[in-house]
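Before relying on records like the one below, remember that each one covers exactly one chain. Contacts with other chains, cofactors or solvent are not represented anywhere in the record.
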Amino acid sequence: MTLPTAADLPRPGEPLRLMAVHAHPDDESSKGAATMARYVSEGVEVLVVSCTGGELGDVLNPALAHDEHVMANIAEVRRAEMAEAVRILGVQHAWLGFHDSGLPEPDENGVTPPLPEGCFALLPLDEATEPLVRLVREFRPHVITTYDENGGYPHPDHIRTHEVSMRAFEAAGDPQQFPGTGDPWQPSKLYYHLTFHKLRLVALHEACLAEGMESPFGDWLAGWEDKPEDEARLTTRVPCGEFFEVRDAALKAHATQVDPEGRWFHLSTDTQRLVWPTEDYQLARSLVPDVRGADGYEDDLFVGLRVPAQSVPA
C-alpha cells in the first residue's frame, strides 16, 4: 500500500468514484444499495463488482422454487436479475467471473462436503485478486466498500471477497505488484458493511412490535452475543432513507433470492426512515484525515476527500 498522490485524489470538477465489491448477485442490493443510489443521484460514479455468478445459490422465493426453467438455467437467470438490479440502482457493473463456492452443509453424519474444485474460495489469493486489481486501476475508485474479516457472515465467498478486497487495496497503488494490470492507483478509503449491527436491529425490532407485526429480528436478537469491540466498529452512518424504495426494488429484482411477500418487507419504508434512516459502515482503512461529526460518526463515505480536492494541484 502507498499513500495517495495528487494523481490519486479527487480533482476540481472530477466526479468522486465508489467501488462496491460483493460476492454474489443480490449482495449489492441487500448491503449498501440505498447508499449507492444516493451517491448516483449526486453524480458519484459507482461500480459494483460481483466476484462470482451466484450459480450455487438456493432459490429462496417459494413462487419460483419449483419452476423448471429457473432451476435448469439458474446462472442465466441470476445474470438477468443482476442486470435489472443494476438498472434500478443506476450503477455500473462488472463480473470478476469466478465460480460460486456454495455453502456446503453437514450431512446426516455431520460431515461437511468439500468445496467444488476451482471455485472462488479455493483459488490462490493472488490469482483471485488480480482481476480486481485490474478493475481498481481502470476505474480508479477513491473509496471501496466490502465485507469484514468474517464476510459479514461466514460464507466462503464472502470471506474470500474480504481477502481479495484487502489485497487489492494494499496492492493497487504499488507498481511492483501485479504488473501488466494497468497504471497504479491507490484508493484512499475502504469500508466494511455493517448492515446487521445490534443498534439497528433493536430499532427495527421495536418498530415491528410497535406496529403489531411479527418481527423477523426477535430470534436473532435473543441469541445475540454482545462483544465489547462491536460498538466501536460503527464509524459511519450515511443518510439515505429517501432511497429505501430504490433499495427494495433492486432487491426484489433478484426474484430467485427473496420472497417479495416475506416478513423482511413488512415494515414500511416510512417507518424505517423514522427509526433508522442510514446505512452503516466501519471505516477499516483510511489514508486521509479522520473527520467525524459531533455524534462521533462520519456521515459520508467521502469525508476527507471532498474539501481537500479543491487544493490538489493539477
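The chain has eleven helices and seven strands.
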